[in-house]
Amino acid sequence: NAGVTQTPKFRILKIGQSMTLQCTQDMNHNYMYWYRQDPGMGLKLIYYSVGAGITDKGEVPNGYNVSRSTTEDFPLRLELAAPSQTSVYFCASSTLQGAREQYFGPGTRLTVT
Amino acid sequence: DAKTTQPPSMDCAEGRAANLPCNHSTISGNEYVYWYRQIHSQGPQYIIHGLKNNETNEMASLIITEDRKSSTLILPHATLRDTAVYYCIVRVPNFGNEKLTFGTGTRLTIIP
Questions:
Q1: What residues have CB less than 8 Å from B66, skipping those under 6 apart?
Q2: Residues of B with CB below 8 A from A106's CB?
Q3: Of the candidates B45, B93, B103, which has its C-beta nearest A100's C-beta?
């Protein structure tokens, strides 16, 4: 299993541009999550999904959109990028039952200038 | 979710067992104890979890006290690659309780 994969690894955006961060998992997990981590800070939940077609906001959803058309994929879209969105973005997934421990991808480092 | 307390930093000699403590004195009966780590610039990595019993997997062992108010993560033969920040998290895996809250963790440095 590849686990959770994310692309791209790095990206530089100009203010006002848009982009999509890709996330794929091959563990057949129902739950998927997007977090952001600012330098020296903890993770903040942006959006999550409990299954295909179902998404919900986390604690910092403004400026982002998500969709979940398949179990495997959970892309995060940034519209009108702003410097405040400079961060490292992590995607994670977990099972529906039990302790629901989360498995994370390697992250996408995004800079908005 | 219950609050956890961890020492800010620890050193351990390479090849020795690293014992990382966590205090969670306000834990409730249905809260799990999870351990994650984050190696510099990488995604958090799930290590192990437990509810009441001690647990062991290929990465580590988790010892939970009988009253469940504290736990210890044990890395049996620490290597330089185990240098990371280790997070102890206590939560109930319920619908509507989705986010993982990482505290400040313990920065573990493995000394050659």
A1: none
A2: 42-43
A3: B93
In this predicted structure, the answer to whether residue A1 has a pLDDT above a threshold of 80 is: no
Q: CA–CA separation, A93 vs A108, rounded Å?
A: 16
pLDDT exceeds 90 at position B11: yes
Nearest chain A residue to B99, by CA: A45
B58 touches chain A (CB under 8 A): no
Closest partner CB to B34 (pick from A33, A101, A106): A101
- pLDDT tens for each residue of A23-72: 999 999 999 999 999 988 888 999 999 999 999 999 999 999 999 999 99
**Chain A residues touching residue B44 (CB < 8 angstroms):** 43, 90, 92, 102, 104
- What residues does A35 pair with on adjacent strands? A45, A90
The CA distance from A92 to A35, in Å, is: 8
